[in-house]
From TrEMBL:
It holds the Pfam family ABC-3. It is found in: Cell membrane; Membrane. It comes from the Bacteria. SUPFAM superfamilies: ABC transporter involved in vitamin B12 uptake, BtuC (SSF81345). The keyword Membrane applies. This is Metal ABC transporter permease. Keywords: Membrane, Transmembrane, Transmembrane helix, Transport.
Length: 320
């Protein structure tokens, strides 16, 4: 372990793994709630065009991929919000076109070589340069600030857009913001996990945490913690085994999901038995029983420890 930390590139890789482990599940939990688990995979295809443009213009592929991914995410959200029946076809053209264009641009660039695109597709701990780490840190901080700071608003649009719109929240703005954060997360994670596997790190820790947690806040915290653990373990394992970091991280995450799935079944039965043994919870308001006289204080139609002030119309509504 000490020998591994003595290398500068491993220090950068581990720091990048921590940032990716936090940001990917932080965004992924909203995509899982919206049943858009494969959105990250599509964004990964679009990001390949940004990587190719970075090679062509000899600029940072990370920042170029951010620009292209954000444009792709906005396009995806506009197509989705319109509810066009041909929207799936348009998105498929966007995803496949992004992948093909990226490969073509990389092959035409002067920087193209063996493994130049492989490191972006599958992740590589050797390719995390200091400027890449700085970009990952800045972008990761933005993603974390938005996904945690606007947790209530983003959760609301993931559950019911119509109700959220009635409450006065800017639904379209929040949808676009979430899509942009997903695009930024893809570019943040492509150095460590790879464009082809980034969607797995956004989804698998979330569904693994859902096996044991019972609230949104607990699931978000547990999935972020799990993302950090598997990212660090995957990068460490890839160093010792000389394998790409992306597949190592994803396989570890899937293994944790399998273990949690086995644990979840007996845990759910234990919770069920505990709830059955404790008996039904006492209700604050007693519904009127047959034969009770409305308007009079009695054990059947009174509040706990107080006089009954409920009108007959209100009792009828409660009974229904």
């Amino acid at each position: 372990m000490t020998e591994m930390l003595s290398y500068d590139f491993m220090q950068r890789a581990l720091l990048a793994a921590v940032l990716v482990g936090i940001t990917a599940p932080a965004v992924g939990i909203y995509l899982v709630q919206r049943r858009q688990a494969l959105m990250g995979d599509g964004m990964g295809h679009v990001a390949m065009t940004g990587v190719g443009l970075g090679f062509i213009f000899q600029t940072s592929p990370v920042w170029m991929a951010v620009l292209v991914c954000v444009l792709g995410a906005v396009t995806m959200e506009l197509v989705r919000s319109r509810g066009n029946q041909r929207g799936d076809i348009a998105l498929a053209m966007l995803f496949y076109g992004g992948m093909a264009c990226g490969k073509l641009l990389v092959s035409l660039s002067a920087q193209a070589g063996a493994g130049s695109l492989e490191s972006y597709l599958w992740g590589s701990i050797l390719t995390v340069a200091p400027e890449d780490l700085a970009a990952i840190a800045v972008l990761g901080a933005v993603v974390i600030a938005v996904t945690v700071g606007l947790r209530r608003q983003l959760f609301a649009i993931c559950q019911d857009e119509d109700f959220t719109r009635v409450t006065g929240l800017p639904v379209r703005t929040l949808n676009l913001l979430l899509a942009v954060m997903a695009a930024v997360t893809v570019t943040v994670a492509m150095r460590v996990v790879g464009l082809l596997l980034v969607s797995a790190l956004m989804v698998v820790p979330v569904v693994a945490a859902q096996q044991l947690t019972r609230s949104f806040a607990a699931t978000q915290a547990a999935s972020i913690a799990l993302g950090v653990v598997v990212s660090l373990a995957g990068v460490t394992g890839s160093y010792h085994l000389d394998v790409p970091s992306g597949p190592a991280i994803v396989l570890l995450a899937i293994g944790v999901f399998a273990v949690f799935s086995v644990i979840a079944a007996p845990l759910a039965r234990r919770r069920h038995r505990a709830g059955a043994d404790s008996g039904p919870r006492e209700c604050d308001v007693q519904l009127p029983t047959q034969g009770s006289v409305p308007g009079r204080n009695s054990p059947q139609n009174s509040l706990q420890g107080s006089s009954d002030t409920t009108t007959p119309e209100r009792r009828a509504g409660l009974a229904q």
